[in-house]
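Input chain follows. Return structure tokens only.
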Amino acid sequence: MHASTQLPGKSALFVSALLGGLIFTSCASAPQPSNQASSPIAAEQAASTTGNIAQKADAAPIPRARPQLIKKAAMTLIVNSVDKSIDTVSQIINKQQGDLIGLKEQQPTKESTRHTALIQIRVPQNLLESTIDELAKLGTLNSRNITAEDVGDRLVDLQARLTNLQKTEANLQKIMDRSGSVRDVLNVAQELSNVRQSIEQIDAQLKNLQNQVTYSTITLNLEAAISSTSPQRALGEQIQETWNNSTHSLSGFTVRLLKLGIWLMVYSPYLLILAAGIYGFTRWRRHSPRLTQTSESANSD
């Protein structure tokens, strides 16, 4: 009786343990299907996001570098008064924050009866068009020409070379600071001098190009509208010119006389012989008729 009563208790404990294990196993394995189901969705969302970002990156415009242009302009104007136009050009230059870098004026003369002037102007590049418009109002525009040269690649190349040379200079300076033999120090010093010379040359070229990009050049040719005769000169100027011409003529005549005297001195023996011959011949011709008459009278006697 005692043994039979213990069996049911052991079986109840075994069943309870078995049910607890099943419940624990089901609880532990239950979240796995949800994670497996959510991972493809997350991967698809991540792929979609990456694709949108890539499309936006492809659609975004690539920024272009601003062209570095050297602009030059040339103009020819027909004006009523070249002198007044030159004054007005000076005012325009000051207004446009520019500089006058050249002026060549030709007054009317006997050979050329037209008053002309050639002016070279330098203005900021952003004011080039407005300056040309202001200058065109001075008279009748005969011709206009604008040229532009892109030097962006040259500027980038020079800047890269300058950066590399500066790095080389720094490295050579570090080597110079180290202790070494006199020969090595002299070699490094010579190389450092060459590098610095190259740096100065490239830096000068770079600044020159940048200056040409910043400022544009205008070559302005002014021509008088009506050809005019040479203006009447003052009386004093005419007298001075006459005096200069007369003194110059006198000096030339004196020089020619001196040259003639030298020639006569050199050929004087021949001239004396010639003069003696002419004199003898003349005397002979004078005495020849008397001799003829004397001989004829003697024969008649």
